Amino acid sequence: MHQDPDCRLLASSYKDSTVHIWDTRLAHSVMMLTGHSQSVTCVRWGGEGLIYTSSQDRTVKVWRDRDGILCRTLSGHGHWVKTLYLNTDYVLRTGPYEPANDRLSKPEGDLHQLSLTRK
């Protein structure tokens, strides 16, 4: 959604080992991703045409978002994969606001000198 503000799709995971892609305007499931053998613990929409899912079956699966085709299975984890973090999480957390452009987060001048003048 951070790349397309008109996006109507939402992904949700279930204990029955499936992931549903929902059309939020029509309020129904438009696609179901199946392939995990145990509960899906986390879903992340990657923003580059991929959906990432993790599961209690100790795998991470990578899916194409346009047609739900399984691209890759990442296995070898010793325990359940409970959560996923992607570089798009920062964009989703901050939205269009960029802290680096805020004058308060990047004051002009020496930080030590600023702290002395404020006391």
Task: Please give a structural write-up.
- This protein is mostly beta strands and 119 residues long.
- It has a single domain, classed as YVTN repeat-like/Quinoprotein amine dehydrogenase (Methylamine Dehydrogenase, Chain H, 7 Propeller).
- Helices cover 13% and strands 34% of the residues.
- It is built from 2 helices and 7 strands.
- It has a 4-stranded antiparallel β-sheet, with no helix packed on it.
- β6 (60-64) and β7 form a beta hairpin.
- The radius of gyration is 20 Å and the shape is globular.
- It starts with 8 loop residues before the first strand and ends with a helix.
- Residues 111-119 have low confidence and may be disordered.
Uncertain runs with pLDDT below 50, 5 residues or more?
111-119
Distance between the termini: 44 Å
Total domains = 1
Percent strand equals 25-35%
- Specify the CATH homologous superfamily: YVTN repeat-like/Quinoprotein amine dehydrogenase
In which range does the helix fraction lie? 10-25%
Please identify the top-level CATH class.
Mainly Beta
